[in-house]
UniProtKB/TrEMBL annotation:
Source organism per UniProt: Paraburkholderia megapolitana
Keyword line: Signal
Domain of life assignment: Bacteria
Protein name: tRNA_anti-like
Signal peptide range in chain numbering: 1-22
Length: 186
């Protein structure tokens, strides 16, 4: 075999190897991303079930005093989750159920509701932020993934469930969040 043919063959084998390595890297990155999303979805489901696991006990309780005890247990379980897992949110999933803006006020409020009925809200999204720009491409009903963290409730340093009634807190809990990333979900 001539030297030029050998070099050409060697170059082809090298390029094929590099291409295979690139494909392996891409496959590995895709697998890692899929694993991260699966872990995030499991963590979200665990968080939401922390409170919702007590819903049937709450709704079947005969007296308001029993319901209040269960409600307080749910709050304690939620606080324990945050203590054990932190307040960060990474690639959680939901559907935009509200986008509120007015002509007089340029800021927006958004509510994302998960499949379990848990609501995540961010208020006062200023129009100059990247989040506002991303939100401008979305509408009510859009399936999204979001990252960020649970926000402290007014008057406290800690996040908490923010529903107006005990019953809503137990059947469709709501949380304030600070969203750092929002994107359409496949």
């Amino acid at each position: 075999m001539k030297t030029s043919a050998k070099l050409l063959l060697l170059g082809f084998v090298f390029l094929l190897g590099c291409s295979q390595h690139d494909n392996d890297t891409t496959t590995s990155e895709t697998t890692n991303k899929s694993t991260e999303v699966a872990v995030s979805q499991a963590l979200q489901a665990t968080f939401e079930q922390t409170r919702l696991s007590l819903t049937s006990s709450y709704t079947s309780a005969q007296h308001q005093s029993e319901k209040t005890v269960i409600y307080k247990q749910a709050d304690e379980k939620t606080k324990k989750f945050w203590k054990d897992h932190g307040i960060e949110i990474n690639e959680w999933a939901g559907r935009i159920t509200e986008i509120n803006t007015t002509d007089d006020y340029p800021n927006a409020d958004i509510v994302i509701t998960s499949d379990s009925g848990t609501k995540y809200s961010e208020n006062n999204i200023t129009s100059s932020t990247a989040l506002s720009k991303e939100l401008s491409h979305l509408s009510v009903g859009s399936k999204v993934r979001f990252s960020g963290k649970f926000a402290a409730n007014m008057g406290t340093d800690d996040p908490s469930e923010i529903s107006l009634t005990e019953r809503d807190s137990m059947t469709s809990p709501s949380y304030l969040v600070e969203i750092s990333d929002l994107k359409v979900s496949e």
